[in-house]
From TrEMBL:
SUPFAM superfamilies: FAD/NAD(P)-binding domain. It comes from Pseudonocardia bannensis. Pfam families: NAD_binding_8. PANTHER family: DEHYDROGENASE-RELATED (PTHR10668:SF105), PHYTOENE DEHYDROGENASE (PTHR10668). This is NAD(P)/FAD-dependent oxidoreductase.
Length: 478
């Protein structure tokens, strides 16, 4: 045991809470400080439109959460977390009326893709079958001794490719668009190297675990993490904004669930000059413009499978998606942006109020885009669901600057906390053997700017906690 050894975590998002739980499990006395009045960061949930209708503020669907090597060790179900799975995990409609459809069953997905089914199975069969082993390597720092080197190398050969190149393995518009929509979660041009990585990993996770949602909203994930921390003797204080490390009580370890620029601000002159320069140069990517809708009777998708899918990618063909992602990186918002839509209520009816259902949607927009993209988002959805506007009974929007105000880690509306450029994917948040170390003894960064990056999986926090425990020479719990 480590009685008397204290740790402070700044930020109560999923990574901050995961770091706190990992430290508390090792016996440290942990206090989490959160600037907002509510914990959760990107996993908050509330009634944004009409009473009784629950909307996720940011993160909504969690294939990497249910598959997280760290979260799987915590028995969060004992603290109220329930994963709910829809009939159809993902649909991607086309103007022809057809749709590419992903369900947890690889065989059923392949059958639905017709002539592209065998090729889909060849790509994703090995990835899904070996997902658990692959995740143990991919969700760690880039520089490490791999536990499954052959499997990791095979994945790497595909992941380093552009998404558009990987998509050539399929011939139909439906299969290519289905993959492109998943790859677009990287918010990076699809013709660039490494843009296939997220598409491959999220699709494989879908075939291994599905794309589930948390019952009652994404806040249930952080509520369960918080309950686990409290059970271990930890404490959480909200409404506490930390502006300098000097404000913190003495602690053996300090972990910062903050964007690199914020770490540089808080650390000030204590940060080594080379680290400060790297954190100041850290690049943030495109933003998000979010539209939450309360829809009576649900979205009237033209394609029946879209009406049964918890996630719908709205962007047309792969060439259209590639064009929109190029444009936003050039600072221009196209008339038809790529839009992600979630209908979580199909898996979790508790989010609805009678026949009024929450519909969660956001478009990729240029970094810091100040304009109103509401009509473009609605027009894009109505392209595949004519009559949507007639069913809307409540609306709430959040622009890219408003995302940054909501969560300081979302600089310029960048909800993935960092551009997924080729170099930054491999070296985030800076070039270092230990990416979690700030260069200040005992102070670590644990936000989504660190490996393995964005997603409600807690691995950034868990990995940073392991780095802190090694620094303190405390054994890492199995």
């Amino acid at each position: 045991m480590t009685d008397g050894t204290t740790a402070i975590v700044v930020g109560a998002g999923p990574n901050g809470l995961a770091a706190a739980v990992a430290l508390a499990r090792a016996g440290l006395r942990v206090t989490v400080l959160e600037a907002a009045d509510e914990i959760g960061g990107g996993t908050r949930t509330s009634e944004l439109t009409v009473p009784g209708v629950l909307h996720d503020h940011c993160s909504a669907v969690h294939p990497m959460g249910v598959g997280s090597p760290f979260l799987q060790t915590l028995d969060l179900e004992r603290h109220g977390l329930q994963w709910c799975r829809p009939e159809i995990d993902l649909a991607h409609p086309l103007d022809t009326g057809e749709a590419g459809v992903l369900v947890r069953s690889l065989d059923d997905t392949a059958r639905g893709l017709g002539p592209d089914g065998p090729a889909w199975r060849r790509v994703f069969g090995p990835l899904a079958d070996g997902f658990d082993e692959l995740a143990t390597d991919l969700m760690r720092p880039v520089v490490h001794v791999p536990r499954h080197p052959v499997r990791l190398a095979r994945f790497g050969l595909q992941a380093l490719q552009p998404a558009t190149l990987v998509a050539r393995r399929w011939r139909t518009d439906a299969a290519r668009a289905l993959f492109a929509g998943v790859a677009a979660h990287a918010l990076h041009p699809l013709e660039r190297p490494t843009s296939a990585a997220i598409g491959l990993m999220l699709t494989a996770a879908g075939h291994r675990f599905g794309w589930p949602v948390a019952r009652g909203g994404s806040r249930a994930i952080t509520d369960a993490l918080a309950a686990s921390l409290i059970e271990l003797g930890g404490a959480i204080e909200t409404g506490v904004r930390v502006r300098s490390l000097a404000e913190l009580s003495p602690a053996a370890a300090v972990l910062l669930d903050l964007a690199p620029g914020a770490v540089a601000d808080i650390a000030g002159d204590r940060l080594p000059a080379r680290v400060a320069r790297a954190y100041r140069r850290y690049r943030h990517g495109p933003g998000a413009f979010k539209v939450d809708l309360a829809v009576e009777g649900g979205v009237p998708w033209r394609n029946e499978q879209c009406r049964r899918a918890a996630t719908v990618h709205v962007g047309g063909t792969i060439s259209e998606i590639a064009y929109t992602e190029r444009e936003i990186h050039r600072g221009r918002l196209p008339e038809r942006p790529f839009v992600l839509v979630s209908q979580q209520y199909l898996a979790d009816p508790s989010r609805s109020a009678g026949d009024v259902h929450p519909v969660w949607a956001y478009a990729h927009v240029p970094h810091g885009y100040p304009g109103d993209a509401t009509d473009r988002v609605l027009n894009q959805i109505e392209r595949f669901a004519p009559g949507l506007r007639e069913r809307i009974v409540g609306t709430a929007v959040r622009s890219a600057p408003e995302f940054a105000a909501y969560n300081a880690n979302y600089v310029g509306g960048d909800i993935v906390t960092g551009a997924n450029t080729e170099l930054q994917v491999l070296t985030r948040p800076r070039i270092a053997l230990d990416p979690y170390s700030t260069g200040i003894p005992g102070v670590f960064i644990c936000s989504a700017a660190t490996p393995p990056g964005a997603g409600v999986h807690g691995m950034c926090g868990a990995n940073a906690a392991q780095a802190a425990l090694r620094h303190l020479r405390i054994p890492v719990p199995a």
